[in-house]
Amino acid sequence: MRGVFIKPVSGVEGEIRVPGDKSISHRAALLGGMAHGDTHISNFLLGQDCLSTLRCLKQLGVPSEREGTEVWIHGKGMEAWTEPTDVLDAGNSGTTSRLMLGVLAGSPFTVTMTGDASLRSRPMRRVTDPLKLMGAQIMGRLGGNLFPLTMSGGQLQGQTFRTTVASAQVKSAIILAGLRASGVTTVEEPALSRDHTERMLRGFGVEVLSEKTAVSVHGGGLLTGQDVSVPGDISSAAFFLVLGSLAGSGEIILPNVGVNPTRTGILDALITMGADIELIDVLEICGEPRATLRVRPAKLRGIEIGGDMIPRLIDEIPILAVAACLAEGETVIRDAAELRVKESDRISTVVEGLNALGAKVEELPDGLRIHGQPSLRGGQASSLGDHRLAMAWAIAGMLSKEGVSVEDMAAADVSYPDFMAVIKKVAQ
Ligand code: S3P
Questions:
Q1: Which residues, at least 6 apart from 170, have a Cβ–Cβ distance to it below 8 Å?
Q2: Which residues are catalytic (predicted)?
């Protein structure tokens, strides 16, 4: 197996400005495109996923300009979107596809969407079924479950939905469609998923009612262009929280990391495991709290997590599993069957990847059982095209005895294009 070799480190030191939050960058571009007037986004994530959102918007007649991580979207309202002359390609991005389908359900034209091999195998029925019930016509493989999908949007009717999985992509797709539907649209989830759509819609001037795990909007809400400052992505910071905890010496400072409570499960989990993580200067900008995080070495012990905690750290489970391999005792992660429909089946790919590096991880139907060890041997692992696995294996390499050769490390570009340069900078 060829790959990028990641050497073991004896310590880490430095300040890392993690790139902009992926979920918030997508939403800023999308809401900017739906709004009337210009939207200026700072610290936009230049990962492949968010670039897919900008590219799809352009095909729909919404122009944008980019200079470094600053983006300007020239919105003229959703009525100004035009029928694309070609297939929309969402690349690897579940968020681009599902949120975009929600917005397009109310557009009186026909769109075909597709994506890469991973996205073409991910379930879309969770959004297409509710959008069909609201009035959109959708055709695709397996009864509208798999990309490529063709949708003809139009007149929508508001509805109340009770979802069976806590998914911000599903909630957001329905709520965005609800803005173009008649009457009220409500989504009630089994547990609260990330609430960036609700917060940002309020910032763009739309009334959104939230009560416990239910969210409602009235049809017809108009969005007005805004300035959006995107905080650093806690999902990217998570790799350094684990590295800084287990590298043995040194300190990592992570300024401007988003600490929205629907995303901070990784902080709660690591701190419960014994991590030395401090939140400094918490402040809220554009409706999203952010803080400087400081992490120092600590001894970690295993934990049990499940239930409502899972949606709060769903994307961080691969790197949390790396931490658990080096913690004292057993870690059990349950209620996380959603991992099976992420960019890869992250239950089986995490088990296989970590065991190949000398860890002891068991696969559960809905999670993982990880037996902590004092050290990790290292070896070879593939990202299998999944960005979070690429970065988890690289951190495992830095914390291992023999290093790790990561095949398809380039997958990290989906959410963290500078990742390799940054780990080189902090390694001691
Ligand atoms: C996201 C929601 C989550 C997460 C994904 C981004 C979002 O997916 O895993 O990386 O931006 O809404 P689900 O909503 O499907 O759980």
A1: 98, 126, 127, 130, 163, 187
A2: 315
